[in-house]
Amino acid sequence: MSDDLVTWLRTQLDDDAAVANSATSGPWNNDDRLARDAVFAPAIDGFIVDCDYGRMGPFAIHNATHIARWDPARVLAEVEAKRKILDLHAHYPVSFGEGFGCGICAWDGRLGELANEQWCATVRLLALPFASRPGYREEWRP
User: What is the largest CA-CA distance in the chain?
Assistant: First the structure.
């Protein structure tokens, strides 16, 4: 059984966590009325995300809202949740055949998702948002 998928995915999660930890802690907010035309402007209650309206035009408010929504705290919470999902869907020896399978999916009656030395659909779906990163293998695609 190969742990390549989970090892690779944990590396992607570690990278996301490192980037989030290196950013300002926030909280991040979007306040287009301030129109500061700076990426991050200090504010009393955290950081204001303000994209340059002069360069982005009407997309500035949407970009600033998107950036603020993906603040470091949210990214770190998602990384932690995905790590816990990986732990839940770890491979265990299975009694219905030779090899390993996902203990959660096996007990949930989804034996069709489990092939010897393959990860369940849940783990493969967790990796899918990272498919454009180096090292992703097409055989992992759900």
Answer: 63
Which range, 25-39, 61-75, 94-108, has the best average confidence (pLDDT)?
Answer: 61-75
Cβ–Cβ under 8 Å, residues 79 and 9: no
Work out the average pLDDT over 54-64: 74
Chain centroid to Cα 21, Å, comes to 14
Give the residue ranges of DSSP H helices in 38-88. 53-56, 60-69, 72-88
- pTM, to two decimals: 0.76
Token pair for residue 74? 């949210």
Looking at the predicted structure, is the pLDDT value of residue 35 above 60? no
- In terms of residue numbers, what domain contains 32? 24-70
User: What burial class does residue 125 get, using C-beta atoms within 10 Å of its C-beta: 0-12 exposed, 13-18 middle, 19+ buried?
Assistant: middle
* Domain termination site, one of 34, 49, 70: 70
123 and 97 share one domain: yes
